[in-house]
Amino acid sequence: MIISELTLKNFRNYKALHLEFDPNLNIFVGQNAQGKTNIAESIFFLALTRSHRTHTDRDLLSWDEKEMRVSGRIIKKNMTVPLEVSLTSKGRIAKANHLKENRLADYIGNLNVIMFAPEDLAIIKGAPSIRRRFMDMEIGQIRPVYLYDLMRYNKTLKERNSYLKFDPTKIDTDFLDVLDEQLVTYGHKVIDHRRRFVESLMTISTDLHDKLSHGKEKLVVRYVQSVKTDFAAELKQARQKDLFRHQTSVGPHRDDLQFMVNEIDVSNFGSQGQQRTTALSIKLAEIDLVFQETGEYPVLLLDDVMSELDNQRQLDLLSLVIGKTQTFITTTTLDHLQHLPDKLTVFKVSDGEIIKEN
Q: What is the dihedral of CA 300, 137, 149, 241, to 10 degrees?
C-alpha cells in the first residue's frame, strides 16, 4: 500500500499544496515550526479522519478559515483509490472512490498508517488512557467492526454513568439491569478484539525486540483486563459502589497494557533506552500485524524520531522497514541519518513552502 499523491487545502499552514511521493522513502527536511510535521499529520488524518496531535478540529484549519480538505490517491492491490476527508460547517465528511461514507468506521481502513513520533514514548510510560487509545486506533484500522462495538460500549457506558448520578431513591433497578446487560454484551466484544490484538502484537514484538536488543532483552506484552472472570457478576457486585461514586468501576474502559523487559516493568522501572526500544518494537510489530490482517504493508510515518535514536537503532530501524513499507521521515537535518538507501526523495520545507530535490 502506498500513497502516490497528497493535496491539502487550508490544512494547518498550507493554504494549498499538492505533492507526489516516492513509493519507497520520502524525507522532509527543515527547521522546527516550518510545516514538516503537518505533512505527516495530514497523512495520518487522511487515514483515520483525526489528528494524532490534537483533539480540537479547529487547530487543523489554516488561520481564519472555516473549512479544510485533505485528499490523496492510494495504490493498493493494483488499484488506485482516491480518498478525501473534509472538515466543513456540516461536520466531518469522508469519501472513498468519490463516494461519501455514512459512517466514519466504514471509511477507516482504506489507508493503513503507522505513526512513530517522540510522544509515542507515552504509550510505554504514560497513563493507561494513552495505551487504551493506542489499542483503539490500531485495532480500528485493521478491524473496522471494532470501532462500532467500541462506540456502542462507550454510548452505553455514558448512559449508565449518567443514570448513576440520579437520586438513589429514584433508581429503577430493572432499567439499570438493562443497561448492565447491554454494557456486558458490547464489553465482551471489545475485550475479545483487544485480547486477540495483544496476543498477535506480542508474538511479533517479542521477536523484533530480541533483534533490536541483539538478544539481550526479552519483551513480554500483557493485556491487563479490568474484568477478571465474569463481567456481569463483577458489574453487579460493584453496583453499590458505583451508585455511591456515580461512575462505572469495572469494564474495558479501565483496561491497560503492561510491558515487561527481562521480567521488569519497563514503564515504571526501565531505562530510557529500554523504553525507546520497547516503543520501537511495538511500532514495528504493528507493520507486520497490519500485513497479517490485510495482506498489505501500511504506510510508515517517522515524525522527528530519527534524532532520538542512536546510530545503531537508526540502522536497525531502517534495515527492518526500507523496501517493505513506503516510509515518510521528518527531520531537521540529514547529517545524523546513516545508511540511507539509494531510492528516496528529499523535500526541503521552509515556512510552508516545499521544494522537491533530486
A: 160
Look up the CATH number of domain 125-295. 1.20.1050.90
Write the pLDDT tens digit of every residue in 311-350. Answer: 777 778 888 888 889 999 998 888 777 677 777 899 999 9
Please enumerate, by residue number, every residue annotated as part of a binding site for ATP.
30-37
Tell me the pLDDT tens digit for each residue of 187-226.
Answer: 999 999 999 999 999 999 999 999 888 899 999 999 999 9
CA distance 12 to 124: 29
Per the annotation, where are the binding residues? 30-37
Q: Where in the chain is the domain with CATH 1.20.1050.90?
A: 125-295
Positions of CATH 3.40.50.300 in the chain: 1-112+296-358
Among 221, 220, 223, which residue's Cα sits nearest to residue 193? 223
Q: What's the pTM?
A: 0.89
Q: Span 1-112+296-358: which CATH code?
A: 3.40.50.300
